[in-house]
Amino acid sequence: MSEQHSTSPSAGYKFTNRLINETSPYLLQHAHNPVDWHAWNDEALELARREDKPILLSIGYSACHWCHVMAHESFESEPIAKLMNDNFVNIKVDREERPDLDTIYMNAVMMMNGHGGWPMTVFLTPDGVPFYGGTYYPPTDRGGMPGFPRILISIAEAYQAKRAEIAESAQSILKELKRLETATPQEGELGHEIADSAANNLLRMFDTTYGGFGRAPKFPPSMTLSFLLRQHHRTKDQAALDAIELTLQQMANGGMYDQLGGGFHRYSVDERWLVPHFEKMLYDNALLSRIYLDAFLVTGNEFYKRIATETLDYVCREMTDASGGFYSSQDADSEGEEGKFFVWSPKEIEALLGAEDARLFCRYFDVSEFGNFEGHSILNVNEDAATVAKQMSVTVERLNEALEGGKRVLFDVREKRIKPFRDEKMLTAWNGLMLRSFAEAARVLGRRDYLDVAVGNANFLLRALKKDGRLLRTHKDGESKLNAYLEDYAYLADGLLALYEATFDIRWFEEAHALVKTMIEQFWDDEDGGFFFTSSDHEALIARTKDWYDNAIPGGNSVAAHLLLRLSLLTGEASYRQKAEQILKLLKSAMLRSPSAFGHLLCALNTHLASPYEIAIVGSVEADDTRTMLAEVFNRYLPNKVVALSASKDDAAARTIKLLEGRSSLEGKATAYVCRNFYCEAPVTNPAQLSEQLRR
Fold first, then answer.
1. CA-to-CA distance for 507 and 503, rounded, in angstroms?
2. Do 122 and 59 contact (CB within 8 A), yes or no?
């Protein structure tokens, strides 16, 4: 660590450490701590071995509120920093850049404590093996929690006096970490009874009052809802659809949804979806926009379409770089206060809207003198417009006029406030998720602007984050770095396949297929099946993990399985389907035991067990009759389908995609071929006939 430098960006700071050379916004937030921080690298690990010091590993991310709290309380404290510097090699990791490390050490912390979270604080041997850990520690003893200085002193003393016990504990944890990655294929065939059991278990956990599953805090259950929507589509179970609709309505009417600017916050601290944890994550908005779009296709309810489009419009406005990449997140705090950017008072609103419009606006959006969050009000909707209009003795039209005008005024005023910090690193995996959402919305809604965003994003990712056929993980300030992980390959290939179906530009299919081939070559476990989280040429860590679970984002194996099933239909490559089936069999009992942890994998199972529609269309993508055919395919909820298009039987697509092989147009008209369950319908040139085939 060095003292103040005379040149920017360190000028004016008492301390500057090695993190000043990093690109991660989270690491840069700690670059002026008095702690002698290292990034995770060979130099830091070698230093720990050479000096025989334990490693203090601190993992967090830039939008994490309690990460900021611990940084301010402890990492900015010179006395605490001295304890850290004297006794440990201190390593700071951005979990979003290094999910490989985060997964390993989070598993360890959860073994030790039964729970985990961020900030994560783990103590390791010089070889990187964990022996003690936790999450947030206060700067002094508080509420039964030991203060961080006491933890530091105790660990340092134990490392000197009880080395054998620490070594034994570390080896025990390491053994357990390696055991976690094993899964055994289950006997018997995969059947719909798995999905039926999972759906029944989920519905037993359903909150019939407020929607969602379980108690507070409530996280948006995007993947679980997607599975239940597929289940409803297959079984016509009304209870499943009712659960989906109540949850979608309650989330979008609550404070977890940004009623002015669109987009969802990370989660709700209460069961009513009222008070959010205010950070906004790219991945949540990718997944949520998709389930709202699907709900619109199923129900025709324009409310779901509005929420999907407002969410995507928010991403266009707030989270899209000029290069075409999508930023990672926005913080919960602004001006040092959580949620300050988003809350209002009646006095503020009356000054902006006038007494009468403010009266209507405040009633509808639950703004009061008392407030619903620390003396202020988070905008949320408790009753529909007709009910509120009747209570306020105005017409619905008058109320809507006040609401729409008020939203515009308040949004413009809010834009002048100091905004929460935005993490502007661009992660390949999360961009792939959002790429798919924009591509699907472009096709379903006929939004050319969304298609332009999707194409711009795909071009950026392939230009900036693909090198010599391999992907990189992260891009910031013109620099791309770090080996990509399984999720980067799977999510991006999935997004590119969706973009192919939105444009029918063969380039996107070819790029997706090439990534899948590399994914199999670098990540597939030939011995036990499933995909590893890291590539075969990744740096050696204490364990090579497999990403089984669908948590905040879909598990890499879940997305890969679903992707391989779809690609097998397009290419005729049987090995892709076999690998997907192997993953599903490995996790058969886990899906039955913990369905809420496998929402996306259950969607893959649904595709595996279904008779997917294999739809080939021959015609010019720009021709009106082709567009009409495509509208018949995409303007309905068909979760299990693949679509390919060629202009003729001799074009590049027909030569590349097996599904198009030998297909030609009839009478010079756009012609659709529909196959499923090992048989094909007669080719049709009439949209009504195609519609009939898609209803069978």
1. 10
2. yes
| DSSP 3-state of 90 | strand
Chain centroid offset of residue 431 CA: 9
Contact 554, 600 (CB under 8 A): yes
Task: Tell me which residue has tokens 């440990």.
Answer: 88
pLDDT given for residue 4 in this prediction: 32
Q: How large is the average pLDDT for residues 635-661?
A: 94
Buried residues in 44-54 as b, exposed as e (16+ CB within 10 A): bbebbeeeebb
Integer CA distances (angstroms), 207 to 211, 214, 246, 346, 631, in order:
5, 7, 9, 32, 36
678, 683, 684, 687: CA torsion to nearest 10:
40
In total, the chain counts a number of residues equal to: 696
C-beta atoms surrounding 267 within 10 Å: 18
Question: 231: which residues sit within 8 A by CB, 6+ positions away?
Answer: 195, 196, 199, 237, 240, 606
Asked whether the predicted pLDDT for residue 6 surpasses 80, the reply is no
Bond prior to 217 in cis (omega within 30° of 0) = yes
- Whole-angstrom CA distances from 563 to 99, 491, 498, 585, 696 are 21, 9, 10, 16, 24
Query: Could you say which DSSP state residue 659 is in?
Result: G
**Angstrom distance (rounded) from CA 395 to CA 397:** 5
Please check whether residue 247 is in contact with residue 225, taking contact to mean a CB–CB distance below 8 angstroms.
Answer: yes
SS3 199: helix
Instruction: Return the percent helix, strand and coil in the chain, to nearest 5.
Output: 50, 15, 35
Q: CA-CA distance, 191 to 188, in Å (whole number)?
A: 9
Q: Which residues pair with 532 in a beta bridge?
A: 546
pTM for this one? 0.94
**Where residue 10 falls among pLDDT bands split at 50, 70, 90?**
low
Cβ atoms of residues 634 and 502 within 8 Å: no
Identify the H or E element spanning 482: strand 479-483
Q: How many angstroms separate the CA atoms of 696 and 687, rounded?
A: 15
The upper half-sphere exposure of residue 12, i.e. CA atoms within 13 Å in the direction of its Cβ, equals 2
> Taking all residues of the chain, what is their mean pLDDT, rounded to a whole number?
95
At residue 13, the pLDDT reads 87
Angle value at C-alpha 199, between 197 and 202, nearest 5 degrees = 110
